[in-house]
Design goal:
The chain is α+β, with helices and mostly antiparallel strands. Helices cover 51% and strands 12% of the residues. Helix 9 packs across helix 12, helix 11 packs parallel to helix 14 and helix 17 runs antiparallel to helix 18.
């Protein structure tokens, strides 16, 4: 029997979706408490199955377990729900029910194909149905898997190694009105399901719609909604290991569920096919990346890198030829004039040598921002390096997020050391407050965003709501690792770091007046736009693919290119910050500390602005739940870039200022 199957490669554009309305919310404390209670009662204290070990070496007829994970709208990758939130089979049919259903299925097939080979039925009956696998029982998960919303559970599918199954009954059921409404809404929202065999993911669609009007949607008597009750598993083996797995749905076995008022009998079934695959087991995950992402876009990634590299060269040439030439002329003039005529000849940046090292307002906040930015930069570089070397598996679910959580906690010592040292160099006295600011500057906004999105996910019943055990684990890591290391960094900076700022010029007691009449193109706003747009243009192309990986179903594997692009971004930002700083000093504005930090960090604001463009024009995302996660966490990502780039730009600018003022003659 020849059947047209929907393969597991998901399309890129799907119809609009409808999402359930969000329930009314109450006080935040009540929501958090109910979140903890519900997640705990949902399975925290229940015994969980051991996770299926990847790389199992099977014996002939050995048990192969199918683990189900979640369902959800394709265009909303964060809006996911438990697999068994839909009325799927939780138990397997027994031998007698299967044989009766098989004879009925086979008789239907014989009426459509008289030449069908009947020898397979005798072999099929030799495969004993044990019926001992129960669905909807939780599996143990890694930290990263829980963070990304995985909720793996057992399934009743009975597969055995190297045993093909032509057709097998999973269960027979009659769907009532409530079940039909659930399935119909899921199909109209383009729900897909996700399963695993070992660590190999498989995807498929719950159903399909035919003859639906693009404007009116479902038209009575014209459009039809179909459920796919049959799954075909195709497993590739290399010796005694499974190296590939796909699942597909058969169009010929679909069930019409258009009329939800009429109870509909449904026969869920499955088939299994094993084949020899020459793919090595260690390379099993590359096929996902190759088939989904790499071939069609690899050249575009290199175009992005070339674009960034050319921009770096242009900025380098600008700084070298223009700025250095101007500074050289300034140095020559200042070195050649007599002391008696110094005051008459002074102008521009040389005139403010007594104010340029006047420390900024809100030094505690400034030092905390600089230290946190350095910490995030080091953690990001370490993460990309570990991903590039393969120490952190980029194909394992949630490994990048879990790795970032751990690396952030381990690098808190660096952030506290940098911020506290700078605070003492600014003659700060209350260093403990600086350490506390550094410890909470990034985690506190992240926690507020998390509380909001987790509450929204909880009211929608989504698996994106982190379970209490995961929240407790992350909180414990922060409390027992991050906070002590932060305090340690502050103590080391207090006792062992150099507290001398070593300014090349003395600061006057009275601040110099800053000129206010300036042309519009030299205003602070124009500087901010320029400093944010130029670095953003260097990463714009690569940013699209990162968004498609973060908020889509594509797998990003080009971490070498990503690391190179990130380093180029730091260089571009630093060069632009120095260039704009020179123009600011040339107009006799000595308030450069905060302006340099903000100018360098403006790329983060451009990234957040781009997230709005991507949401409304480059994705099919919609709904309260998805929008909360998307814009909430993108604000945190953008804030992180603001701190990283701001800190990087400030340090380069500080070196530049110290260098030029150490070369001139001052009183």
């Amino acid at each position: 029997q020849t059947a047209y199957r929907y393969q597991n490669i998901l399309p890129t554009s799907l119809p609009k979706q409808h999402h359930p309305p969000m329930r009314a919310t109450s006080f935040l404390s009540l929501l958090l408490w109910s979140s903890a209670i519900s997640t705990a009662s949902a399975g925290l204290f229940k015994k969980k199955h051991r996770r299926q070990k990847a790389g199992t070496k099977y014996e002939q007829h050995g048990e192969v377990h199918v683990v189900v994970n979640k369902v959800g709208p394709f265009n909303n990758p964060t809006e996911t729900y438990r697999y068994y939130s839909l009325p799927f089979c939780r138990t397997h049919a027994d031998e007698s029910a299967h044989l009766a259903a098989y004879e009925e299925e086979r008789s239907i097939a014989l009426t459509t194909d008289e030449d069908e080979d009947t020898t397979s039925s005798s072999y099929l009956r030799k495969l004993e149905i044990k019926g001992n696998r129960i669905g909807a029982e939780r599996h143990k998960q890694r930290l990263g898997e829980s963070i990304v919303g995985d909720r793996r559970e057992t399934s009743p599918y009975e597969l055995s190694f190297q045993d093909d199954v032509e057709w097998r009954l999973l269960c027979k059921t009659t769907l009532d009105k409530a079940d039909l409404i659930k399935l119909k809404e899921a199909i109209h929202n383009n729900y897909f399901f996700e399963m695993f065999i070992e660590d190999l993911p498989m995807w498929g669609y719950v159903g399909d719609i035919e003859d639906e009007d693009e404007i009116l949607g479902e038209v009575e008597g014209q459009s039809h909604t179909y459920l796919f009750p049959h799954l075909h598993f195709r497993l590739g083996t290399n010796r005694n290991q499974i190296v590939s797995a796909t699942v597909s749905t058969e169009r010929d076995r679909r069930v019409d569920i258009t009329n939800v008022n009429k109870p509909t009998p449904v026969q869920f079934s499955y088939s299994v096919e094993f084949f020899e695959d020459d793919l090595p087991w260690k390379m099993r995950m590359t096929r996902y990346a190759d088939s989904r992402f790499l071939p069609g876009s690899f050249e575009i990634h290199w175009l992005s890198i070339i674009n960034s590299f050319v921009l770096v060269l242009l900025l380098t040439a600008f700084l070298t030829i223009i700025l250095m030439r101007v500074l050289k002329n300034d140095f020559s003039r200042y070195m050649e004039i007599d002391d008696s005529t110094m005051e008459e000849e002074e102008s521009g940046w040389k005139l403010i040598h007594g104010d340029v090292f006047r420390f900024p307002e809100f030094p505690t906040l400034f030092c905390a921002a600089v230290g946190t930015g350095v910490q995030l930069t080091i953690a990001t570089l370490l993460l990309l390096g570990l991903a590039l070397t393969g120490i952190i598996s980029t194909t394992r679910r949630g490994s990048i997020l879990a790795g970032m959580v751990v690396l952030y906690c381990l690098t808190t010592t660096v952030g506290a050391y940098i911020s506290t040292r700078l605070y003492f160099q600014m003659n700060g006295k209350n260093w403990v407050r600086c350490v506390l600011f550094t410890a909470g500057l990034f985690p506190v906004p992240t926690s507020f965003v998390f509380m909001w999105v987790n509450t929204v996910a909880l009211f929608h019943g989504s698996t994106s709501a982190l379970p209490f055990s995961t929240i407790f684990t992350i909180s414990a890591i922060f409390a027992l690792v991050a906070l002590p290391l932060t305090v340690l960094g502050g103590i080391v900076a207090k006792n062992y770091a150099n507290h001398d700022f070593n300014a090349p010029t003395r600061t006057t007691k009275v601040a110099r007046e800053i000129p206010t009449e300036l042309p519009w193109y030299r205003s602070r706003f124009v500087q901010m736009v320029i400093s944010g747009f130029l670095p953003f243009s260097a990463i714009y192309i690569e940013l699209h693919y990162i968004f498609a990986s973060m908020w889509g179903h594509q797998i990003y594997t080009l971490f070498g290119i990503l690391l190179f692009a990130f380093v180029l971004l730091l260089i571009v930002t630093s060069f632009i910050s120095v260039a704009l700083l020179y123009f600011q000093l040339a107009k006799e504005d000595h308030r450069w500390w905060w302006s340099t930090f903000v100018n360098a960090g403006m790329t983060g604001l451009f990234i957040y602005a781009y997230s709005f463009f991507y949401y409304f024009h480059r994705s099919g995302m919609s709904g309260m739940l998805q929008a909360s996660f998307y814009f909430g966490y993108m604000s945190i990502v953008s804030f992180g870039f603001f701190l990283m780039l701001g800190s990087c730009g400030f340090h380069f600018s500080l070196l530049f200022v110290k260098h030029i003022y150490s070369r001139v003659k001052c009183d």
